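We examine the record.
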Amino acid sequence: MRIFYFAVSLMLSAQVSAWSNHTLVTHQLVATLPQVRDAAPVEVESLNSFLLANESELEVFLSQQESWMRENLWHYAPRPEALEFRAKDKENDIRTRFTHAIRINPNAKLPLYLQLLPGDKRQQPEIDFALVSTLADSDSQGDVQFVQLMPEDKVAPLDVVSTASVEPDYGLDIGLFTDSNTDYGKVYGFGEQPFGNPNLEYGTQAPFHMGFYHESPIVYAFGGFLKRTYPEYRIQLYKQLSEFAFAQGHDYWGWRFMGWGLHYIGDFSNPYHVMPVPGNSTMETLRVGLLNMLDFPDAQNNAIQLASNRHTVLENFQSLVMTQAYLEQNLEHPTIQALTRHDEAREFNNDHIVTVMSQHSYDMGHDIHDVLERTMPEKYVDDPSVEYSDLNARASLQETVLNTSGEDGFNALVHIITDLLGGFSDNGASYVEAILSKQSSVSSQPEPQVAN
């Protein structure tokens, strides 16, 4: 077991982010769902305002929700009783009581803002990345623009959902484990971090953004820690909170919580988030771990480096081609069309999070590995002596792929990303429509809502 743990855990430490800008992949999906696209503008509301207006109802709702989680989720870590939300009619600590009850980073910024699409311009003042995220590194955001909103502004639900779908990458899941060196991580009940690198600024979010639900029994036998992943918890948490907010008449937070949940469904569309090491067989991973235990660490170090490079180069390419498509307003681009809804969404069932939503990209894990090897320069994806991020190669990556593998290779890479995004479109639409169908069926005096 220790062999498998060390091999896989360290490899996963390099694979924390999925798509680098979730707004790119969420916007077109919700823009083509009439229930979102045509919804009336909603009034912007601070988190504190929402919480204070619903404090008594939240106490009941969050208690019911915790009971439901314990009964229904796959390998759930129960919330400690001391974190139960209590209505105290005190404004000064209500945000802390809430963030502790839903076990997110209490230092998350959660400002009132919008994240714009490439080429979009708004009249609102721009704000810096530091006001949006707890993370210090803003380089990966490129030219992303943020604009400030104010309470009582009117905003389109489409913009709220698109913006919110990125927020879990801005610090919501940072520092939640007992070995995260945070006061809140010591009391949240998740134990020690099961995998990933807790010393990396963003590394502690890995178990909340990766879900390994389709491995063979031998993998779970050697690596039971792989079951300690929490995207299902987050998807259900925010689905139910969205339904609650809508039921209470606080639509801004209904849309925002919906966007938070869509983030993790978007993560599921990336194979590096649903299988331990795409391209490696179980036996290869065990071999690497065995060599490491015998004090031959090179094989493991090489595997970690290759996984990191492949994940990053895939993410960079996807971001570049989609950014260009939006700048050119090319809604016929294959990646945009993959997110454009034409059919009715599949009916959402709670067990789909584990059984369906990550299956498509899991099945494509080895395919994406093969396509990257065929289309990228060897030093980007097959040379463990290279740290891809140090090459400053991102800006010219599209041209590099064309020079390396021609238009056929370029198109093959676009095609497989398009296929992955199509999976997100199906799963995301199912999630959105489940929330909104719940909204339309609540009574005039709704009870606190939990999932069916």
In short: The CA atoms of residues 7 and 285 lie 6 Å apart.
